[in-house]
Amino acid sequence: MMRYASDGRPLPTPTDTSRPFFEGAREKRLVLQRCPRDGFFFYPRSHCPSCLGVDWQWETVSGRGSVHAFTVDRVGHDPALASQVPFAVAIVELDEGPRMSANIVGCEVDAVSVGMRVEAAFEDVDDITLVRFRPCGD
Ligand SMILES: [Zn+2]
Question: Is residue 7 part of a domain?
């Protein structure tokens, strides 16, 4: 079921599988599942996407990575996000390997570029913490 923040943005609903991801975010930690055979993966899922194993563990990762690809919404394609434009949505390749999608914050949208180094940033929205990425110095 879709739910919305007090400012109108859509919010994720943690499940039994994804709850540790959001609990980590609340503590300002980026946590990912890691399979003992195949390494880290994203997004939260009940089985390793490579071997379908269930013996993965949650681990805190560096939160650092590089912009692999991005787009900028300047018009508000989703009416629920129209108040947020312009905003950048990127696929970030984490230093640990997996790619995850997230908003890029902390800079003008025109400053976002492929290859830009970023680090996780955390935004508390009502009862949940969202993972974003912002430029970092390395
Ligand atoms: Zn695996």
Answer: no
Q: Look up the domain containing 43 and give its range.
A: 12-135
Q: How far is residue 115's CA from residue 93's CA, in Å, rounded to a whole number? A: 9
Q: Answer whether residue 102 is part of any domain.
A: yes
Q: Is residue 103 situated within a structural domain?
A: yes
Cα(53) to ligand 1 centroid in Å equals 5
Residues by chain with Cβ below 5 Å of ion ligand 1: 35, 37-38, 48, 50-51, 53
- Number of separate domains in the chain: 1
pTM for this prediction:
0.92
Mean pLDDT, all residues of the chain: 95
CA–centroid distance, 80 to ligand 1, in Å, is 37
Structure tokens belonging to residue 8: 């109108």
**Contact of 68 with 125, CB cutoff 8 Å:** no
